[in-house]
Amino acid sequence: MQHTGAQPPAAQQRPARVRILDAAQELMLTVGLARATTKEIARAAGCSEAALYKYFPSKEELFIRVLAERLPRLGPLLSELAAEPGRQSLEENLTEIGRRAALFYEQSFPIAASLYAETQLKRRHDEAMRQMGTGPHRPIEALDAYLRAEQSAGRVRPDADTFAAASLLLGACAQRAFAYDATETGSRPPVEDFARRLARTLLGGVSATEDAS
User: Fold this and answer.
1) CB 188: neighbour CB atoms within 10 A?
2) DSSP classification of residue 116
3) Which ranges of the chain would DSSP assign to H, the alpha helix?
């Protein structure tokens, strides 16, 4: 896919950082992370490669910022819930977590998949994520923290394995991103129903009350 860098006047009026993130997301989705060079991203954003590096010191950081700022925001939701356990019902919270996580993985999987095809590329990205204090393990840790907060509040059973529960919920959401491509329809389970069923099933193993409120 060729990008000339020519953009409508309205697009050029947007801040450079916004244009760069938009262009990076589009290219990472269409040509893959490995082939989405900073030169191509800058051209698609209508700026110089030097200007891109003023905002993002590396392609690795740009990739991480695309995940954090352009996809459904899972991290902030988990932090808010952990800071304020007891808000809404446990089922409602887990359903919203499942919904947002499923959408996040659905949109991030096509971008991140190419990392696993090139060992050196993945190593660079892993190191960048370590330096920035992020990575795919963070949502699991954050959901575990939320469930432990609910455990302290008495809404999750004291003997529940919160880390295993967090891993099960987010693992299912991640698998939804690719597990159904080979079915007859090639369609994923509808996200709203998928999230609700996951939440209800998880509640059967961790809820301290029958109504999971």
Assistant:
1) 16
2) G
3) 9-12, 16-30, 38-45, 49-55, 59-70, 74-83, 90-112, 119-132, 138-152, 162-176, 191-206
Contact 162, 148 (CB under 8 A): yes
**CA atoms within a 13 Å half-sphere pointing along the CA-CB vector of 123:** 3
Place of tokens 């080979």: 182
pLDDT, tens only, 52-96:
999 999 888 898 888 888 888 888 899 999 999 988 999 999 999
* pLDDT tops 90 at residue 194: yes
Task: State the Cα–Cα distance between residues 167 and 183, nearest whole angstrom.
Answer: 25
Q: Using CB atoms within 10 A of its CB, is residue 189 exposed (0-12), middle (13-18) or buried (19+)?
A: middle
Sign of CA dihedral 25, 31, 36, 41: negative
pLDDT value at 6 more than 70: no
Q: What is the pTM of this model?
A: 0.80
Are 42 and 51 in contact by the 8 Å Cβ rule? The answer is yes
